[in-house]
Each structure stands twice: as C-alpha cells, then as structure tokens.
Design goal:
2 copies of one chain form a homodimer.
Chain A lengths: L14 H19 L4 E2 L1 H8 L3 H9 L5 E2 L3 E3 H11 L6 E6 L4 H8 L2 H4 L2 E8 L8 E2 L3 E5 L3 H8 L3 E4 L3 H12 L5 E4 L12 E4 L2 H16 L15
Parallel strand pairs in A: 4-5, 4-8, 5-7, 8-9, 9-10
Antiparallel strand pairs in A: 1-3, 2-3, 6-7
Chain A binds a DNA duplex (30 and 30 nucleotides) through helix 3 and strand 2.
Chain lengths: 233, 233
DNA sequence: CAAACTTTGTGATATAATGCTCATATTATA
DNA sequence: TATAATATGAGCATTATATCACAAAGTTTG
C-alpha cells in the first residue's frame, strides 16, 4: 500500500500566475467575441507584454491545454481557466461600508456580475445610512447582522470600503462572520488567517508608488528608461 | 579622470520595496499620532506580517536611518520615506471617466489630499455629463481638453475609471497628453512606456484571485493552511 | 567602566520567479 | 511520405527577491 500520491511533481503556482490567468481570461473572452479560434503563447504574450515561456508555464501548472504546432483553442482555454479560478460557480459578495462613496460605486458596478460575482448584501455601521435602498441590491443592513446574513445567504467574499479608523471596531465581527475571503480597500493592512484570505488593495499606495517613479525621473536618473520598474498587476 | 561614479554598490530597490515603504509610512504616521518616538524593525515587521530583515533591507536601500541598539526614530523615518517617495511635493491628479460611479467616488474621496495628492481636473467623454459640477473639484471637461489642461495645470498623474470598451478611443490622447503616470482601473491592461508609467489595478482580477483560493479550499486541499498564498499588497 | 543586552546594516545563503533552449508533436506543403 | 515550419511543454540557467546570521554600534545595568 503506497503512502499517498506517486508525487505531485509540480509546485504550487505562484500568486502572480493566478493574477495573470485572470488577465488571460479577459483577453480570451475578447478574442472569442471577435471570432478568433486559436491563439499562440507568443501572441498572447505580445499583447500583454509578457514572455511567451511565462504564458506557457503559467498554463502548464494546471495541465496540457495547448496543441503543439498549433496553439491554444480560445474556447477550451477559456473554459479551463474558468474552472481553475473557480468561476463556474457564482460567488456571493457583500460590501461593508456601503454607505460611503466607494462602497456605493462598487455596489452599483455591473461589471462583477458578468464575471459571476453577485453583490447580494450591503452593510454599514452608520445608523444614518442603514435602511437606505440601493437599486437592484437591497437595503443597507447594520453590521451587527453580518454573521447571520453570511450564514443564511451563503456569502463567501466581503469587500471592505470603510475608513481606516473604523477597521478596529469591525475587525473581529468580520473575521468571525464566516466569510472565507476579504478584499480590503481600507488603508490599513489586514492580515490573512488560516480561515480567511485577505487581499489588500491600497489606492494611496498605488499613487505613492507612481509618485516615486515621478521623483526618480525628476532627480535626473535619465537612462532609467531601461530597467524601469514597469507596470504591475 | 574617472569614468563616472565609483560604483553605486546598491542595486535598484524592487517595486515591492516601494510599496512596502508606503505601508510603513502610513503605520509610522499612526505611531507618531500616538506619541510613539522610536520603533524597531522587529516591531514594525510584526505588525505588518513581514520579516524584520526585510524591513531593514528595504530601508537600507536608501540610507542608514536607524540607530543600533535603539531602532528608528518615528519622525525621522517618516520624513525620509516622504522624501524617498517624492511626497513632499504636491502631485496634481486628474480623473478620466469622472462621470461614472467609481470616478465620482474617487473625485470626492478626501483621503488623497491628506497624502498630498490633489485631484484638480475631471474629464469624461460623454456629453451628458460634461459640464456637470463636482463639489470642491470643478466641472467635468471634455476629454478633448486633456492635453491643454495637463500642460496648463501641471497635472502629473491620471486616474482612469472608464469602461474597458472606451479605452481604445482615448488611449492615444491619454498617452500623448503629457502626463507621466497613470493609475488604470479599467479592466484592460495598459502597458508602460518610456514616457508614461502605468499601474493597473484590476478589481475583477482581485476577486478572481480570491475565488481561486476559495475553490482550492473547496477541492479539499486541506492542509493548505501552510503555504497559503497569503495576502498581497 | 566592563559586561550583558539590544538592534541595526550587510554579506552570504536560500527561495522563488522569470527567461532560454530544445526535444517533441502537429500541421502544411510539395 | 518526406521536408519545412510552427508551437508546445519541460528542464535548465539566470535573475530577482527574501531570509538568515553575525559583526559593529549603541544602550543599560551593576
């Protein structure tokens, strides 16, 4: 009787690979819309300013999707990536801080539904906005109702759009609410735990990183044009 | 006569370092507000779930700011990071797609000004919103006015909050407008050039990366709790 | 003021991500 | 069916990034 598997051979894919898969997916959707049937790693890479080998390696983490001498079937590859990222299943999302500008903007953003994310609950701490109706989503609930709603509705992802100062107050109720993932826009670095994966998106940090590049150029490091830190994402 | 410098010894700091500097800066501001005078790399690292050596190395790219046996002066370190990131100088920002939800939310977000970014012009392509007044910022201008306004006002950074489909139309006018940096929220990967640094922030990609983690756990890779891809940023 | 303790800054080392190269598979063509 | 052309997948090389470990510097204590 053997111990377990014969040896998984492949290491876990890096997070950067996962991000790129999402970008590939979007591009593939566009190609499919244009009627393109097949794409090579070379062409994919060129459009996205990546190395073709990187594209192939990213995909090879998950199987052999391509055909030598031909390339990748746009539709098949798209379907594979959808499965890899777990996007066949609709994911329920709630927004915390839905009374604020950013929260409202995201609550009303229709782009998520196209990708199978459904905003289906809104929360806030401020009594002044609790009860307000948001078109097509529902009324804003008190944050106190979060744990119950998460369980009843099956919410998996929380989007946090609250001020930094408010985090401490809601931190525990959020982490213990039963959600498995958080997308945090508050300018305060939340840490992942065993139970809850957190991704922080810090708009100020993004601007400051750009400011750094600006001041590099100002300070006359002229031929920085090479090794320029390039774009992220 | 020597060729140039005696040899810069230090390599360029990675982008990840720059991002972390921004995070350090925010935390240092908080500490300063709380009256904390000195912080060690160890304490800083603990709060931000980093390695102390990484904190020290990040800072060491730019000089020797600490005191052995003591730590870093909160105020001094804060001031150094401000200089490194070029934040002593106010940076003028314009928003393209200011008629949309996200654009409006960002235009009205007051958090940027605290960090010395000033939103001072708004643009859109849609005649239905051009001319609309946005409190405290001004009227929405036609995108046609972008190049002139950039030059006259000294705008350095553009924030793009337009639909993906609209990018192709405005791509050239933006890249040639004279700005040096772009923060792109549109779900379309824009590429950096020699003249214009682009950072892409893709909200859908963030959600999809979280979805991947969710489906990993669903598929029963139980003891993933170790090597969990953790948080980004 | 010496000994014990703390904490930085950095060279050495480990880990990870990216890029290169080529054997192999597929298609097209003559 | 052989030949040329294309493009994947995988192993290896290279580069980039993160961590370790320790000497040097500063502080505190007795």
């Amino acid at each position: 009787m053997k111990k377990t598997e014969p040896a998984p051979k492949k290491p876990l894919p890096p997070q950067a690979t996962i991000r790129r898969l999402s970008v590939y997916l979007r591009y593939l959707n566009g190609l499919d819309g244009d009627g393109v049937k097949v794409i090579s790693s070379h062409d994919l890479a060129r459009r996205l300013a990546l190395n073709p080998a990187q594209v192939r390696k990213d995909l090879a983490y998950f199987g052999e999707f391509g055909k030598r001498g031909v390339g990748y079937s746009v539709k098949k590859l798209r379907d594979h990536i959808v499965k890899i990222l777990g996007l066949q299943k609709m994911r329920k999302v709630a927004i915390i801080g839905a009374g604020g500008r950013l929260g409202t903007a995201l609550a009303l953003y229709t782009g998520f539904e196209k990708r199978n994310f459904k905003v289906c609950a809104l929360f806030d701490k401020d009594p002044a906005v609790i009860g307000n109706e948001v078109d097509g989503v529902g009324r804003i609930l008190s944050i106190e109702e979060l744990p119950r709603t998460v369980k009843e509705t099956g919410i998996e992802i929380l989007v946090l759009t609250i001020p930094a100062a408010a985090i401490k107050e809601v931190h525990d109720i959020i982490m213990l609410s039963g959600v498995r993932a958080i997308l945090n826009f508050a300018p305060y670095k939340m840490l992942s735990t065993e139970d809850v994966a957190v991704h922080n998106v810090d708009l100020t940090t993004e601007l400051e990183a750009l400011s750094y590049l600006l001041s590099l150029r100002e300070s006359g490091l002229t031929s920085l044009e090479n090794n320029l830190p390039a774009d992220n994402e």
